[in-house]
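Below sits my pick:
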Amino acid sequence: MVPSTFRTIFKPILERNQINYASEIILFGSCFSENIGKKLDYFKFKTASNPYGILFNPLAIENAIKECLENKRYTKNELTFDQGFWHSLNHHSDFSDIDSDSVLNKINTRITKTHVGLKTVSHLIITFGTSWIYELKESKKPVANCHKIPQIKFNKRLLSVNEIEESIRTIKKCVLNRNPEATIIFTVSPVRHIKDGMTENMRSKAHLLSAIHNSTDEKSNYFPSYEIMMDDLRDYRFYKEDMIHPNKTAIEYIWERFCYSWVSKEMNEIQKEIDKIQKGLSHKPFNPNSTNHKNFLSELESKINKLKDNHGIAF
């Protein structure tokens, strides 16, 4: 018998402690974390995304969270100079610059802001991308980003499931000691790291999945973004041209599944109103000086003020 549907639909569960417009959300992790962060920001949730830039492996994310909790201050001797740029090996290249003071200012400003935010964060979303890490040969210290520094200076290795579990335990302990009310959501990025090799990528994802599922409890949760991409969407038409990253359609679908699990359904109407306003704000008028356009802008301003007065939502 021919099946009526030609795909398997993954329906995540409804979670407790869902997100609403009073929630404070911080995201750490891979480029998929950036995608979810942009969606949350678009719908005007209180969101701070990737204060260290895009991070891929659990040890880099653990280090970033601990340093933010400690309100660490970076100094010049902690930076690396290579090919005309100053870098932090703990940060994404977005922080790199030809001026060391600029690098330090960007880093320390984001740490201070995140230090304050972690005290009251309601939802901490952490996306692991890979179990593969690079360690400096000289110090054996793991890095978050090699910044195209010659590979000869690094050793590459795969984190064990036990090492990742220990990292997760450390993250939870540090965050919850400071903020016992925080809800921590772990997810695995659906982006495939095939530069490591096909088999190596699968081993990497398997270690992440095993470690997270061995470590979840009443204060930490798992959102199946990886499974939605691999088993529900399961088709190259949901990838960008590189056949590695989810495309806009896939991101939108996974976002809808995330909302089903984690965003209170009472927020649906507010999100719809915000979507209308966002589309209105991005509208390019044929005649900016026309009466119709001025009336349109006045109506938008009225809707924005209503959302601010009723729900504390700022544009």
